[in-house]
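Reopening: C-alpha cells for the protoporphyrin IX containing FE complex, inputs below.
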Amino acid sequence: MAGNSNFQSNNKVVNWIEERMPIFSLIDGSLGASYPAPKNLNYWWNFGSLAGLALVIQIVTGIVLVMHYTPNTELAFDSVEHIMRDVNYGWLLRYVHANGASMFFIVVYIHIFRGLYFGSYKAPRELLWILGVVILILMMATAFMGYVLPWGQMSFWGAKVITNLFSAVPVVGDSLVQWLWGGFAVDNPTLQRFFSLHYLLPFVIAGVVILHIWALHKHGSNNPLGIDVKSPQDTVGFHPYYTAKDLFGIGVFILVFAYFVFFNPNYLGHADNYIPANPLLTPASIVPEWYFLPFYAILRSITFSISIPFTDIVLIDAKLLGVLAMFGSLAVLIALPWLDRSPVRSSRFRPMYRWFFWILVIDSFILGYVGAQKPEGIMPTLGLIGTAYYFFHFLVLLPFIMPKYEKDTKLPESISNPVIK
Ligand code: HEM
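Re-run output (same inputs, fresh job):
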C-alpha cells in the first residue's frame, strides 16, 4: 500500500536527480503526503519511529565512542574512564549510549506490546512481525556484547554466566563455549570478538529494519480498530499528519531520555561495573541489565530435570531445560501469528483476550522482578509460576481455550464511520 507518488518539483537539480534515480518519489511515497496511513492511528503508533531514532542515536554515539575506546582487557576499563574524564563531552557520549540502550528497549517493548494488543502480527503482517522478533534477538545480542566492553565486574561475570549457558548443549557444549570464548576462559580474544560483533550488529539491525519497513509498506499500518482500510476516506497522507505526530513523540522521548542522561545517568546500570573486572572475585550477585530480567527469570526458574519415570536416566537436565525455556520464550513469539487463531485483530473487540493481554503484561513485570532478586525464599516458585503462565498464554490459551469460549463484539463497518461519528 506504499503510495504511488505523484512527486513533482520546480527545482531543476531535484528533477535531474529524480529522472536518474527516483529517490524523491520513493521518500514521498513512503513518508510523504502520498503515503496513505489509516486516519485513526493513536500515540501507540509513535513507537516505531522512536525505535528508529534510538537505533540512529546508538550508532552515531557508538561510532564516536570507538574513536577513544580500546578493546583490550588491559586497557578497556581505563579507556572508558578516559572517555568519562578527559575526552571533551565524553561523559555525555557515554551516558547517551549507555542510557540509549535502555531507552531503545523501553521503546521496543512498548512497540511489541502495542502489536500484541492490537493484533498487528496477524495476516497479512506475519512476516513484518517475524522480522520484528529477529530485530529483538539481534538487539539482545548487541546489548549483551556491548555491556562486556567496559570490562567491569558485571561485564566479565555477565559474559561468563551467559556464555557458559551454551555448555548445556549436549555433546558439543564444552567445545562450543571454548569456541565462543576463543580460548579456555573469558579473556582478551573474547573481548575483541565481542567488540567486533557489537560494532557490526547494529548495521545488520539497520538492514533488517529496512526489510521491516518494506514489509510494513506492502499492506500499510494496522490501526486501533484492527480492520482493513476500505476507501481513501479511511486514510490521511502520512505527511503532514503523522510526521507532526511523530515529531511530538520525539520531543517527549528526548525529555525522558534527557532526565536519565543528565539527572540519573547510573540509575539503570549496576554499581559493580565501576569496579575493574577481576576473574578471581565473584560479585555477591550477578544481575543482568533490566531489559534481560524477565528472560533471566525464565532461565533460572527451571530447577528440575526431565527423567524417564522410575529410573535415574535424565533426558534433559535442568540447565538445558532452562536454556530451552529462555530461547523458547522468543520462539513462541515467532509462532504467534499461527498460535492466535482469532480472525479479529484489535483487543477492542476481543473482551476476553483483553483480560489475558493485561495478565501477560503483569506476568512480564513479575518475571522482571523475580529476575532481579536472589533465587531464595518464594522467588524460585514465583519465577516458575510466571514462566508457566507465559507459556500457558501462548501455547494453550491462545490456540486452544480462547477459540472455544471467546465471544467477539461486532466490528465497525469502516475506519471512517466511528471516526466521523
Ligand atoms: C529497531 C527496532 C525497530 C524499529 C526501528 C521498528 C520500526 C517500525 C516502524 C517505523 C513501524 C511503523 C510505525 C508503527 O507502527 O509504530 C513499525 C511497525 C511495526 N513493527 Fe516495528 N520496529 C522495530 C522493532 C520491532 C519489533 C521488535 C517488533 C515485534 C517483535 C516489531 C513489530 C512491528 C509490527 C507488527 C508493526 C506493524 C504495526 C501496525 O501496523 O500496527 N517491530 N516498526
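Residues 45, 47-49, 51-52, 55, 108, 111-112, 115, 118, 120-121, 125, 128-129, 132-133, 135-136, 205, 209, 212-213, 216, 221-222 surround protoporphyrin IX containing FE (CB under 6 Å). The two ends are 26 Å apart (CA to CA). Marking as resolved unless the reporter disagrees.
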